[in-house]
Amino acid sequence: MAKVFIAGGSGRVATALIKNLVKAGNEVVAGARHPENIISGQHITAVTLELHAPVDEIVHLMKGCTAVYFVAGSRGQDLLQTDAFGAVKTMQAAELCGIKRYIMLSSMYALQPEKWAHYQALADITDYNIAKFFADNYLIHQTSLDYTIIQPAALTEEQPTGKVTFGAGDDTTNTIDDVAQVLADVLPRPNTIGKVIMMRNGKTPIDTALDQL
C-alpha cells in the first residue's frame, strides 16, 4: 500500500506502530540512532538515523518513501536537537523528497501552553511540550505537507482497549498500543489530513472515532 519512513523507529510507540503498518500491508523503513534496537521482520528495513545530521543525509534515507512518521523522542535528554529541530529536519527532508504525507506524534495540548499548568502530567513535561509546540507549529505553518498531528495524553503500558475519545478533556492517559493503532489507521484516511487530533482513553472504537472526524 505505502512505503513508510519512521523517525524514531526503536521506541515503544514505534515498535507497535511498525507491527500495525506491516499488518496493514505497508513497507516500513525505520530509522533510529541504534538501528539494532528496531524490531526485525519481513517488510521492515532498519537504517541508522541521526537527527543531528544535515537534512540532505535524512533525504537520502527517505528516498522512495511515500509517507513519514515522526515518533522520535529523547525522553528529555536532547529536546532541542531531537524533539524540536530533529522533527523540523524530517519535515524539510520530506518536502525535498516530494513526500506529501506526514504524521506527527505530539503531546496533549502541545499547541495550548496555557493548559499545561492545569494538569500535573503536562506540568511535569513542560520542556518537552515546549519542543513539541515549536515542532507542531512549524509543521502547520511552515510546510505544505499533508499532515496529521496526534496529541495523546500520557502514555501507559496497560493493555489496549481499542477505544478512544478525541478532543479536549480531563482524562490524562492513553495506552501505547491504542496510540500506535490510531497512528497507523490515520495514514490512508483523507479526512485526517490537516487535523490536530487530541486523544485519550475512551469508549468509542478507534475506527468509529476516526470515521466521525
Short description:
36% of the residues lie in helices and 24% in strands.
The major beta sheet can be summarized as: 9 strands, mixed
Order of helices and strands: EHEEHEHEHHEEEEHEEH
Q: Helical content, roughly?
A: 25-40%
The dominant shape is globular
- Taking the alpha carbons of the first and last residues, their distance comes to 23 Å
Which characteristics define this entry?
two-stranded parallel ribbon; globular; about 210 residues; 7 helices; 9-stranded mixed β-sheet
How would you summarize the topology of this molecule?
Blueprint: E1 3-7, H1 12-23, E2 27-32, E3 44-48, H2 55-62, E4 67-70, H3 79-97, E5 101-105, H4 120-123, H5 126-142, E6 146-152, E7 154-156, E8 163-166, E9 173-175, H6 176-186, E10 195-201, E11 204-205, H7 206-211
Parallel strand pairs: 1-2, 1-4, 2-3, 4-5, 5-6, 6-10, 7-9
Antiparallel strand pairs: 8-10, 8-11
Helix pairs in contact: 1-6, 2-3, 3-5
Explain what the structure shows:
This protein is an alpha/beta fold and 213 residues long. It has helices at residues 12-23, 55-62, 79-97, 120-123, 126-142, 176-186, 206-211, and strands at residues 3-7, 27-32, 44-48, 67-70, 101-105, 146-152, 154-156, 163-166, 173-175, 195-201, 204-205. It is globular, with a radius of gyration of 16 Å. The protein starts with a strand and ends with a helix. The relative contact order is 0.15. The mean pLDDT is 96.
